[in-house]
Amino acid sequence: MTRYADIPKPIRSGIVLVDPERGTPQRVIVLQFNPDTLERSVSPQSAGGEGDSGGGGSGSGDKNEALRLKGPAEESWKFTAEIDATDQLEIAAPEGIHPQLAALEMLVQPTTAQLREATRLAKNGTIEISPIEMPLTLFTWGGKRVIPVRLTEMSINESAFDVNLNPIRASLSLGLKLLTVSDLPPGHRGAELYLAHLAQKERLAGVGTLGSLGSLGLNGAGAGR
C-alpha cells in the first residue's frame, strides 16, 4: 500500500533576486503553481549574419563565415504563471494577491529610494546619472535550469476579486531573455552562472543516445559525398 508520505513533493519553479556583488539572495519568489507549458526560442548568433544564402550577392568572406558563431545563442523563454488566493483558504489574505503581484512587478521597477536619489543628483547638477542597476535575476526550473535572465515583458490578467476589489485570481504571461557572457561583463556572477548552465547542457547532451549513419540509410563512405 502506497503511503502519501512516500510521494515526492513537487519542486516549484521561481525567481531569485541576487546581490551581484555578494551573491546573497535578496528575495525568493516561488510560483504558486508550476506553469503547464514553457516556450523556449533559441536563435544562433551566426558570424555570417542574415541573408547569406541570398541570390549571388555573398562574397568569399561570407562563405568563410558560414559555419562560425559569434557567441552564445540568444534564448528567450515565455510562460504563464497562475496566482489564486482561493487555493489557500486556510491563509488569511486581507489584501488578496496584491503582495504576490507587487513582488513580480517590482522585478522591472526601481525603488522609490533609487528614484529619489536620481532626482537628488539631478538637482545637484550631476551631469551624467548612471542608469539604475537592478539585482541579478535568476529563473529556476528545477535543479538543472538556474539561469540569469532579464524580464522583457509582463502581461497581467486579473480575473476575480473580493468584496473590497482586491484581486484574488490572476494569470501572468512573462517573457524572459537569457543573459549570456555576451550580455554581462567578464567575471560577473551572472556570467559565471550562465557558463555553469551551459556546462550542464553540454553534460546532458553527452548522456543522450547517439545515432548511427545506418539508421539514416547512410554508410561511412556515402556520408562524405
Task: Give a summary of the structure in a few sentences.
With 225 residues, this protein is α+β, with helices and mostly antiparallel strands. It contains five helices and seven strands, in the order βββαβααβββαα.
Q: Secondary structure elements and their pairing?
A:
Elements: E1 14-18, E2 25-30, E3 39-46, H1 60-64, E4 69-84, H2 98-105, H3 112-123, E5 136-140, E6 146-161, E7 167-178, H4 189-207, H5 220-223
Antiparallel strand pairs: 1-2, 1-5, 3-4, 4-7, 5-6, 6-7
Describe the structure.
Residues 48-60 have a biased composition (Gly residues). Residues 35-66 are annotated as: Disordered. With 225 residues, this protein is of the alpha+beta class. It has a domain at 9-34 and 70-110 and 132-204: Elongation Factor Tu (Ef-tu), domain 3 (Beta Barrel), CATH 2.40.30. The chain contains five helices and seven strands; from the N terminus they run βββαβααβββαα. The protein has helices at residues 60-64, 98-105, 112-123, 189-207, 220-223, and strands at residues 14-18, 25-30, 39-46, 69-84, 136-140, 146-161, 167-178. The protein has a seven-stranded antiparallel beta sheet with strand order 2-1-5-6-7-4-3. Strand 6 and strand 7 (167-178) form a beta hairpin. The longest helix is centred in the last third of the chain and has 19 residues, at 189-207. The chain is globular. Mean pLDDT is 85; it is low at 51-58.
